[in-house]
Write a structure and sequence with these properties.
alpha+beta; SH3 type barrels; 5-stranded antiparallel sheet; 7 strands
Length: 236
């Protein structure tokens, strides 16, 4: 029974060896070198054995795309190191099952993920572009409003300069007129005082004139008084 199991393993291993002997695999094997990270091909699960031959017991089955590190090579077999579940395993793998690039299936998955990331990044950039374009439009409109406001402020400033110039001139004129009014008021006061003095003088003159006329009348009456006629009683 043990011999039959050994023969069965040899037949399976020989069949796998035939499958792994295709030209493309041979090219991948030619590129395999020690000390670099390689990958289990994407054809089938590859057995990792205890020794460099099909007669050795299988330690693990390595899924396609499993990263491995070649430690040494003997004939058609390579001793490799693989990390599984945070544990390092070593064993022997048929060289034709090793290639120096990730399997096409994994590369396709990675490429799809990168494409999705690029598409997502493109959508983000497109959204940012639209946002920036809207912001640019708003800023442009705001700039136009600022220009219009600046133009209006300049006009208002010119008007204020004109008004302020007129206001200064009017203020100077007002000051001159206030000075003239003050002078006229002073002159009026002086004239009123002079008129009051003149009235007093005139009144005194009229008073003196009246007194003089009255005195003159009395004197004239005194000197020019007619003699009185004697009555009949004066004769007795």
């Amino acid at each position: 029974m043990a011999k039959f199991n050994s023969f069965k393993r040899k037949v399976i291993t020989a069949g796998l060896s035939v499958c792994f002997s295709l030209p493309l695999t041979a090219m991948s094997n030619a590129m395999a070198s020690e000390g670099y990270t390689h990958y289990i091909s994407d054809r089938v699960e590859v057995p990792m054995r205890r020794g460099s031959g099909p007669e050795y017991r299988i330690e693990r089955m390595l899924p396609t795309g499993t990263p491995i590190k070649i430690l040494e090579t003997t004939g058609a077999w390579s001793r490799v190191e693989v990390k599984i579940n945070n544990r390092d395993w070593t064993g022997w793998v048929f060289q034709n099952a090793i290639q120096n690039e990730p399997p096409a299936r994994l590369q396709l998955i990675e490429q799809i993920e990168r494409t999705q990331q690029l598409n997502e990044r493109f959508r983000q950039l497109e959204s940012e572009h639209n946002t920036l374009r809207e912001q640019y439009t708003q800023d442009k409109q705001e700039l136009e409003r600022i220009k219009q406001a600046h133009f209006e402020l300049n006009n208002a400033h010119d008007e204020l300069k004109l008004i302020s110039g007129n206001a200064v001139e009017m203020d100077n004129r007002n000051q001159e007129m206030r000075q003239m009014i003050n002078d006229l008021e002073s002159q009026n006061i002086i004239m009123r005082e002079q008129i009051a003095k003149a009235d007093d003088t005139i009144k005194r003159q009229w008073f003196l004139t009246g007194a003089g006329v009255l005195l003159l009348g009395l004197l004239l009456g005194r000197f020019f008084r007619l003699p009185q006629k004697r009555g009949s009683w004066d004769k007795i």
